[in-house]
Predict the structure.
Amino acid sequence: MACPENMFFLIGLFMSGVLACFGKRDMITTLPDRLDVLTGSCVQIPCAFYIPDQNYYKFNSTILISGVWFKKSPQFGEGLDNVIFNSSETVNRYEGNITGNMSQKNCTTVFFNVTTSSSDKYLFRIESQPFCATDTEKSVDIVVRDLPPSPIITVSGEVKEETAVSLNCSAVAPCPEHPPELIWTLPTQFTPENQLQENPDQTKSVLSTVTFTPSYLHHEKNITCTAVYPVGTINKTAEHTMMLNVSFSPKNTSASISPAGPVLVGSCVNLTCSSTANPPVTNFTWFQISGGNTTQVASGLSYTLNVTVGDGGLYYCEARNSNGLGKSEEEKLAVKGETEIFL
Ligand SMILES: *[C@@H]1O[C@H](CO)[C@@H](O)[C@H](O)[C@H]1NC(C)=O
Ligand SMILES: *[C@@H]1O[C@H](CO)[C@@H](O)[C@H](O)[C@H]1NC(C)=O
Ligand SMILES: *[C@@H]1O[C@H](CO)[C@@H](O)[C@H](O)[C@H]1NC(C)=O
Ligand SMILES: *[C@@H]1O[C@H](CO)[C@@H](O)[C@H](O)[C@H]1NC(C)=O
Ligand SMILES: *[C@@H]1O[C@H](CO)[C@@H](O)[C@H](O)[C@H]1NC(C)=O
Ligand SMILES: *[C@@H]1O[C@H](CO)[C@@H](O)[C@H](O)[C@H]1NC(C)=O
Ligand SMILES: *[C@@H]1O[C@H](CO)[C@@H](O)[C@H](O)[C@H]1NC(C)=O
Ligand SMILES: *[C@@H]1O[C@H](CO)[C@@H](O)[C@H](O)[C@H]1NC(C)=O
Ligand SMILES: *[C@@H]1O[C@H](CO)[C@@H](O)[C@H](O)[C@H]1NC(C)=O
Ligand SMILES: *[C@@H]1O[C@H](CO)[C@@H](O)[C@H](O)[C@H]1NC(C)=O
Ligand SMILES: *[C@@H]1O[C@H](CO)[C@@H](O)[C@H](O)[C@H]1NC(C)=O
Ligand SMILES: *[C@@H]1O[C@H](CO)[C@@H](O)[C@H](O)[C@H]1NC(C)=O
């Protein structure tokens, strides 16, 4: 080992914190904290490094740089035995490629065909003779699973009838070369817009946006976003289902009179209003049309009256919630013996 820092490297692994004793890190790497990966797929690790004190270590970016990845070992003393990739070697424990330009301090790396046994924390190291450095304080946690995580649906604000709403579905794309395809299942026509997005930690996600105008008929209907990940010759899928909660003004408002037929003066009659609304109806109001005049006669879901002369006529109800109102058809209350002169 021609690298004088290799001693440090080993000691650093022996007692992580030794380098910190000198009050600085000889290299600072930028890595995502965690990557969720699918078995058999690839993983792209966004990676960048920065040398805080170039003169001291005589880092010269024009000299061939080896990029080395190794497992962060919980055991002491393993050091370089944990190397899984060395860009200067042609055969490595992990099949991969540093796709970033290391002369520009970009150490972005792709590993192919990862397996569950690859789940571990990894550290990055550069070797550019005579300069060698490892940032022992920054590792990336690679979590390999057989099944992809569920995509995430988000909704912009309140879902209200006749008001365009936009929905986002986002799925992680740890292998940006083979991003997932997002498929929506909605109770209406829609046109999705898909894009590959970069997250703040430089990892990638696929985002699909749909905009549609819900009607009250879509209330409590399910919407689903399915992420289809191509892995070799098969597809692996994960989905997120969400029930739509559409807010709408009262619909199907109707009034009923019980008993239905003509009634005698002095008997009891019950008028009941029904309606569907979201949020529920807060206010039912009853109106009587008699002699060409409309009069508000009561409020409440049902209106019970002890029939007197003059109660005959047409009745309707109004249902109200915060979104508006619904009006019922007019229903006739006929009083026996009373001539229908008012109608
Ligand atoms: C970097 O290395 C190249 C090639 O060895 C050399 O020509 C150049 O002078 C070096 N630059 C510095 C700043 O040492
Ligand atoms: C990486 O490969 C180069 C070239 O074979 C070698 O000199 C260096 O020691 C290797 N580094 C590690 C950490 O294995
Ligand atoms: C590694 O990545 C570079 C840059 O993207 C590309 O030119 C090269 O062909 C890749 N090598 C392998 C073995 O995939
Ligand atoms: C680093 O390299 C990767 C892979 O080539 C590239 O996608 C990315 O944009 C580069 N990052 C920067 C900051 O240039
Ligand atoms: C990497 O960056 C260096 C310095 O900016 C540049 O000279 C070189 O052409 C780049 N290499 C590739 C493969 O893009
Ligand atoms: C991926 O790894 C598995 C198990 O190691 C192996 O059977 C398979 O052939 C590999 N696939 C590719 C494309 O390298
Ligand atoms: C959907 O994503 C876009 C882009 O990130 C963002 O501007 C928008 O606010 C998001 N909308 C929702 C409903 O989350
Ligand atoms: C809607 O989704 C929920 C939860 O996934 C499920 O229990 C329910 O059966 C679904 N309803 C319909 C109408 O598909
Ligand atoms: C995988 O999914 C894609 C997109 O949904 C589809 O076109 C393709 O036929 C599927 N392949 C298999 C093997 O199911
Ligand atoms: C209706 O009112 C009359 C007069 O007040 C009363 O005699 C009668 O018992 C009432 N009928 C009912 C069903 O309450
Ligand atoms: C009127 O009808 C409503 C709804 O069916 C019922 O809840 C209420 O008890 C009835 N009132 C009378 C006085 O019959
Ligand atoms: C219900 O609506 C009627 C008619 O608009 C109104 O007069 C009444 O004050 C309302 N009642 C409540 C409790 O909001």
Observations:
- The first helix runs from residue 6 to 14.
- Residues 266, 268, 306 surround 2-acetamido-2-deoxy-beta-D-glucopyranose (ligand 10) (CB under 6 Å).
- The two ends are 107 Å apart (CA to CA).
- Helices lie at 6-14, 18-21, 54-57.
